[in-house]
Amino acid sequence: MNISAIVPVWNGRDLLAGLLASLDAQTLPVGELIVVDNGSADGAPDLARAHGARVIPMGRNCGFAPAVNRGIAEARHPLVAILNTDVVLAPDYLEKLAAAQAPFATGKLLSPAGTLDGSFDLTTRAATTWRAGAGLPDAPPFDVGREITSAPWTAVLYRAEVLREVGLLEESFESYLEDVDFGLRCVAHKVLGRYVPEARATHLGSASLGRWHAETVRRLARNQVLLAARHLSARHMWRAAIGQFLWAGVAFRHGRGLAWIQGKFQGLRLFSASRRKFQQKDPELLEQVLLSNEEFLRKNCADRYWKLYFSLTGVGQSDT
């Protein structure tokens, strides 16, 4: 069962060394390792070549989506793993994902402290998202496998045929939420994946910029608008406004108010073009998925942001 592993990298040599060591130890070896270099200046490409990788130079930092797309275009095997440099895989990680025999699969991502870093992605009718389990103890319900509609592209395995059917990542996102957009496009194609909690990996987290780096916040703020444009029907835009303005409070609290404003203005300028480029084929199917996501989130996440969101928008109420 041959696997092409795609690793986008930008100045992450030390992190890349950890990932490559964990790939060397896999019980299901990769048949092809493709490292797409976004203009690293720390020797990361040389390290990759020393491990037998095929290195594709992008020449500059083009962002996550363009780098991964280039790698996918070069991949030759029926299974494609997309891996961040800041993950370390358990030896049986890829074997357990492949054994699920799903169109796509992801495992349980843990922080270095042993708490959950995330599992699968849940998108709401505000086009804001929760990486399910992030920051919570490694405990139920995240120790039970389940069907999923969206997986973080931190350490995910896809059938190559799914990538051909659904398409590549939307490059206007650059980085952040491009994997969520892909998951919502999977909904349009009625493609479901699998969460495999027995497959475990450690995610060091936000290694490229940092969670509350100004550039991270700018891109997240912009891409929330692009998600709304591409996937939400008009009747949900009031929810999107509430959810995304609530997220502004989080950004301002971390000293990133200006980055949030910049991102929102950039997103609004791209809104119409993004809406023309893609819209959901079956809005009612997406409605069911988003309602289910919100119900799971309400039951399993006590974060203040989500409590405020549900208190202002209601729980489990369809806008039809």
UniProtKB/TrEMBL annotation:
SUPFAM superfamilies: Nucleotide-diphospho-sugar transferases (SSF53448). One of its GO terms (molecular function) is glycosyltransferase activity. Keywords: Glycosyltransferase, Transferase. This is Glycosyl transferase, family 2. Signal peptide: none annotated. It comes from the Bacteria. Residues 4-100 form the Glycosyltransferase 2-like domain. Belongs to the glycosyltransferase 2 family. Gene3D superfamilies: Spore Coat Polysaccharide Biosynthesis Protein SpsA, Chain A. The keyword Oxidoreductase does not apply. The keyword Acetylation does not apply.
